[in-house]
Amino acid sequence: MTEAALVLEDGTVFRGTAYGKRGRALGEAVFSTGMTGYQETLTDPSYAGQIIVQTAPHIGVTGVNAEDDESKRIWAEGYVVRAASRFTSNWRSEETLEARLEREGIVGISRVDTRAVTLHLRDKGSMRAGVFSGDELTADADMLAQVLNSPEMAGRSLSEAVSVTEPEHYDAIGERIGSVAVLDLGIKSSTIQYLRERGFELTVLPQDTSFEQLSALAPDGVFYSNGPGDPAASTGQIELLQQILRADIPYFGICFGNQLLGRALGFDTYKLTFGHRGINQPVLDTATGRVEITSQNHGFAVDAPIDEVVDSPAGFGRVKVSHYSLNDQVVEGLEAIDIPAFSVQFHPESAAGPHDSMHLFDRFRESINIRKGTTNA
Ligand SMILES: NC(=O)CC[C@H](N)C(=O)O
């Protein structure tokens, strides 16, 4: 069995067994509490630049298949598990998880006390880390120096790494309701699917699209996806969104798209200590009083008051926090009252996770229908 080490930037070292590719992975260590859905987690582009620590103790038992990917590849830098399943047992499995990790060059580590790692990250906060095995497994001080040389997540811009470089077109599924311009900041395939199923024809656009290019499509609505990195570093996309809001085009954003709406409206964003990553995160819908169990993956959040309607600091009228976390009262959704724009910090497309919030895609469709009704009147 090949040895491996997980080295955290505060000097803590966890030893284990090499899993996946041998080598070195550097990134921000974050824990995810999902008990299922490791394939969707690994292929979620929002994990770019991160090393995922799975709290579920047994990983890989259902293998992987081509259908459940959320994007074209695994985006996580590194992978930390307690027990890597020694066999795969599922009728849909096409490959073992370890073979997939190796094939995609993902350096992992198993036989790590992931509870201890999680408690450590919960107390000290998400931090830079490295997974080292094979020739890269060297003296602790040497590995630590490499971790300390790696980029911090705060201030990091990763949209360019994950976005399409050319526009991609998707037809509506079923009756066509309208067209949506999608800014790809690391979109998941389930989101594309659910938007299409609502009757939208989509043009998925590169992250550096200009307002002129976007408005040339005359979209009925604009959608900003989830994505990796620090929202404060996305100044171009924030300015683009302000132009979209000024043009009164209906807007819906998920996760990174919520943080960018927050910033476009003039609020700040900040880094959470250890973030929310998992598939059973309770959120309160402040309009209905309903609690939804949601899928989440975020390390940053919008800084806005959760219990009052406030004026947008950037002059876009009144804004309210539409959802907040029942674990720690972090903002989980925004709604502009005077312009057609809303967003959520969690993942209505789930994948993996519960479908409680799927109705938000219908809400986006309604906001577009209302707007079209007004325009045609
Ligand atoms: N899933 C996402 O869109 C994540 C957004 C942002 N990168 C964060 O960590 O908060």
Taking the sheet with the most strands, its summary is: 11 strands, mixed
Strand content: 25-35%
Please bin the fraction of helical residues.
10-25%
Distinct ligands, ions and cofactors found in the model: glutamine
Determine the CATH topology of the largest domain. Rossmann fold
Distance between the termini: 71 Å
CATH class of the largest domain: Alpha Beta
Question: Count of DSSP helices?
Answer: 10
CATH superfamily of the largest domain: Class I glutamine amidotransferase (GATase) domain
**Total tally of structural domains:** 2
Cα shape? globular
Enzyme class: ligase
Family: Belongs to the CarA family.
Subunit structure: Composed of two chains; the small (or glutamine) chain promotes the hydrolysis of glutamine to ammonia, which is used by the large (or ammonia) chain to synthesize carbamoyl phosphate. Tetramer of heterodimers (alpha,beta)4.
GO molecular function: ATP binding; carbamoyl-phosphate synthase (glutamine-hydrolyzing) activity; glutaminase activity
Layout of helices and strands:
Elements: E1 3-8, E2 13-20, E3 24-32, H1 38-42, E4 50-54, E5 58-59, E6 78-80, E7 83-84, H2 97-103, E8 107-110, H3 114-124, E9 127-133, H4 140-149, H5 159-162, E10 168-170, E11 178-183, H6 189-197, E12 200-205, H7 211-215, E13 221-224, H8 235-246, E14 251-254, H9 256-264, E15 268-285, E16 291-303, E17 310-311, E18 318-325, E19 331-336, E20 341-344, H10 359-376
Parallel strand pairs: 3-4, 4-6, 5-7, 6-8, 11-12, 11-13, 13-14, 14-20
Antiparallel strand pairs: 1-2, 1-9, 2-8, 3-9, 10-12, 15-16, 15-18, 17-18, 18-19, 19-20
Helix pairs in contact: 8-9
